[in-house]
TrEMBL record:
It comes from the Bacteria. InterPro entries: AAA+_ATPase, AAA_lid_NorR, GAF, GAF-like_dom_sf, Homeodomain-like_sf, HTH_Fis, P-loop_NTPase, PAS-like_dom_sf. PANTHER family: TRANSCRIPTIONAL REGULATORY PROTEIN. This is Sigma-54-dependent Fis family transcriptional regulator. One of its GO terms (biological process) is regulation of DNA-templated transcription. CDD domains: AAA. The keyword Transcription applies. One of its GO terms (molecular function) is sequence-specific DNA binding. It comes from Luteimonas marina. Residues 331-544 form the Sigma-54 factor interaction domain. The keyword Transport does not apply. Keywords: ATP-binding, DNA-binding, Nucleotide-binding, Transcription, Transcription regulation.
Length: 635
């Protein structure tokens, strides 16, 4: 049955394609302009499209060339493709010329789209296939929707597509993300989803900072800092050289201003105010909250193009991680082991920082410019672990992607593979993992030539693997292969100097806001079952709620902290006895004043006795320090 084209559109098509008219107002102007361009190019509007996708080898080459884009977009493609699977649509990633690198989503619609060559390896540039969301978005350099009969070629009427271009930080268009579905179905939210996903991808390009740039992370609303909606503005020698969409929008700039606009033309005061107070006034009089990432040092050349990306979307942009001297020494030791080709196993409770530790190993190690691929064995469905981890060849099993999947192990090539929650690796897959780790070679599912692997291995677990071995849930031989060196991360309640840690975290997160003594004492006295994750998120919430200049008191703490019994956390017994269990009752001698004072002394020591700096670091006033510690101590 011929598809119905809605009345106005049918009329507009006739006016344009049959009578050579200009149906202004009957189709969106973007579509009409695109039709005109296509006609000027001499594209035949009645011909059948003849799109020849490239062969598998060339597609692989293309994907390798655009590996950074592909990798940074991975999390979004996965998320959207789940969404798409249930709405009869697919998610597509192309390069800057409209070559499709990846298409995932509803299998039925993938097939249907394949019949009009909307598939990996095909080129959907406007000059090839006429008006379409991908090609037209590339031309317009902005998001475009093309529905049904708005496509130039009649064969594409079956499609309804929403596409938005992806820009790297310096303003270069690097690709397009698109959602395509049946034109007969309404895809009301597709454009919004694509825009959000693109904002996330573009944000991820800034994750590791930019070489030689001071990166300002700012927003009018402090609660949006650390999210993809924060404005990112990178300055080199006083000139704005890179920015994300939100950053440009704050000043009404377009990408053409990159490399031209000066810092002075945008901001009314020195960047040091952002450093010191977390605030900065624009020339337009707006007050922005935020912080500055120091310039990234240029990487040492390590041969080959460095890939400064990670496979994981997780990144803590509200502050760099903190490693005290004990952890720093642990990092150094683990690094030596890792660089010698042996595996590191990190153990600790949930939220204690195992992944952050592993990322830091990657950042400091000899594989820093190469990928960091994090795989959460507990989060991947058991049925997917094998194919995702080890990869597969074309058509290895029903539902496999047509072009196969290299697998996460191959994606980690040259870099670090982080297997999180390794204790949840299904027993049935453990022999295969062991074999791959021993032989450093992988044969993908469905056959194909064995591939050499080169990655450093870091695993993490919150459970006792030796116990799991005893219960037959984990293989002993695999355990020995992944635990050449073990690192234990303390739970927060066991931390040797919690006051100093909280003070240091607050100094970074609180951006100049002050914590009243009662709030500090409650934080120090709490048990923190969610460890660093819970503490960081608690401090971020307090920061978002706080007003500059007004100290945050215990009433500003999250409800669970206000309800917790005062001094719930126990100090280890002075006689060296057992540390108390989580949630244990207070013991005599746990004195909140003493805890707060300990925090002050620690900060003072860390600041070499400089009272102003220590007060700033703790988020208390200088007079509080004088009052609590007494003049003698401070002299
Ligand atoms: N060294 C650190 N400095 C500052 N913040 C940290 C540090 N380590 C962890 N965090 C905070 O805690 C959060 C959780 O850390 P991470 O994901 O590494 O924990 P995990 O032990 O791997 O947790 P899980 O076992 O649940 O996966 C981080 O996102 C970060 O906000």
């Amino acid at each position: 049955m011929a598809r119905r084209i809605d009345g106005d559109l049918a009329q507009a098509r006739r006016a344009f394609f049959e009578w050579g008219g200009a149906p202004v107002g009957q189709v969106p102007s973007t579509i009409l302009q695109s039709w005109r361009r296509c006609r000027q190019l001499g594209l035949d509007a009645v011909r059948k499209p003849s799109i020849e996708p490239v062969d598998a080898r060339r597609l692989r080459e293309m994907r390798e060339r655009h590996e950074k884009l592909w990798r940074l977009a991975r999390a979004e493609i996965e998320l959207l493709s789940h969404e798409a699977a249930s709405t009869d649509s697919i998610v597509i990633l192309t390069d800057a010329d409209g070559w499709i690198l990846d298409a995932e989503g509803n299998l039925g619609f993938l097939d249907k789209a394949g019949r009009v060559a909307l598939m990996p390896g095909a080129c959907w540039h406007e000059s090839q296939v006429g008006t379409n969301a991908i090609g037209t978005a590339i031309h317009e350099q902005q998001g475009v929707e093309v529905r049904g009969g708005e496509h130039y070629l009649p064969a594409h009427r079956i499609l309804s597509c929403s596409a938005a271009p992806v820009f790297e930080p310096y303003g270069q268009l690097v690709g397009v993300l698109d959602i395509s579905g049946e034109s007969s179905v309404s895809h009301a939210h597709a454009m919004g989803l694509v825009r959000l996903a693109v904002a996330n991808i573009e944000h991820r390009y800034f994750e590791k900072g930019l070489p030689d740039c001071e990166l300002l992370r700012v927003h009018r609303d402090p609660a949006l800092l650390g999210t993809a909606r924060e404005g990112l503005l990178a300055f080199r020698d006083g000139r704005l050289v890179a920015a994300n969409r939100s950053g440009l929008d704050l000043f009404g700039l377009d990408r053409g201003e990159l490399g031209r606009a000066s810092y002075e033309s945008l901001f009314a005061e020195s960047v040091s105010r952002l450093h010191d107070e977390g605030m900065l006034q624009t020339r337009g009089g707006d007050m922005l909250a935020g912080h500055v990432d120091a310039p990234e040092k240029p990487r040492r050349a390590r041969g080959g193009a460095p890939i400064q990306v990670t496979a994981s979307a997780r990144h803590d942009s509200a502050g760099r991680p903190i490693f005290d001297s004990r952890l720093d020494a642990e990092l150094q030791r683990a690094l030596r082991v890792l660089d010698a080709g042996m595996a590191v196993l990190v153990n600790g409770e949930t939220g204690s920082g195992k992944e952050v530790f592993a990322r830091e190993l990657h950042r400091r190690g000899s594989r820093a410019g190469k990928p960091f691929v994090a795989v959460n064995c507990a989060a991947l469905p058991e049925s997917l672990i094998e194919s995702e981890l080890f990869g597969y060849e074309d058509g290895a099993f029903t539902g496999a992607r047509k072009q196969g999947n290299p697998g996460l192990m191959r994606q980690a090539d040259g870099g670090v593979l982080f297997l999180d929650e390794i204790g949840d690796m299904p027993l049935s897959l453990q022999p295969r993992l062991l074999r791959v780790l021993q032989e450093r070679e992988l044969t993908p599912l469905g056959g194909g030539k064995p591939v050499k692997l080169d990655f450093a291995l870091v695993c993490a677990t919150h459970c006792d693997l030796e116990e799991a071995i005893g219960e037959g849930r984990f293989r002993a031989d695999l355990y020995y292969r992944i635990s050449h060196h073990g690192v234990h991360l303390d739970a927060l309640r066991e931390h040797a100097d919690l006051p100093a840690l909280i003070a240091e975290l607050w100094a970074r997160i609180g951006r100049g806001k002050t914590l009243a003594d009662d709030a500090m004492a409650r934080l120090v006295g709490y048990d923190w079952p969610g460890n660093l994750r819970q503490l960081v998120s608690c401090l971020r919430t307090m920061d978002a709620l706080g007003e500059p200049g007004v100290p945050l008191t215990e009433r500003d703490l999250p409800g669970y902290l206000q309800k917790a019994p005062r001094g719930a956390r126990l100090a280890p017994a002075a006689d060296g006895g057992d540390a108390p269990a989580p949630g244990a009752m207070p013991v005599a001698g746990t004195d909140l004043d003493a805890l707060a004072e300990a925090a002050m002394r620690a900060a003072l020591k860390a600041c070499d006795g400089n009272v102003s700096r220590a007060a700033r670091r703790l988020g208390v006033s200088r007079s509080t320090l004088y009052r609590r510690l007494g003049k003698d101590v401070l002299q």
